[in-house]
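We emphasize that the prediction below concerns an isolated chain of 113 residues; any contacts that depend on oligomerization or on bound cofactors are therefore not represented. The input was used exactly as deposited, without trimming of termini.
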Amino acid sequence: MTFLNNLKKKQADYLLRIASGLIMQIFLRQYELDVRLSFKRYTLFFLFLRNHSLTRYRMLTDLIVYDTPGELNRFTLVYCLLSEKFNTRLRVQFQLSELDSIRSLSNIYKNAN
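Result of the prediction step, given as a token string:
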């Protein structure tokens, strides 16, 4: 298990170096990386994840939205991605308020439609 943790930590360090301006926080949870980012530039980050030769997250496996009434940013969107090439999973999430609007990622991941 420590080998897997070390590998995930290296992956997290790499993502922070390459996309530091896009990532707010990154966590290791249950041997999977959980990335939190600002929704302002989320499409750039997903394009990077899909197309970069060392990530290749080409499959959207889940799209989850949950609501926390009473919070300023009450909606949380969670995108679960899979890189078949590297057999790794990644969770990317960001929060929105009631007044924010986002564009679909269906031009990047067809099943996001």
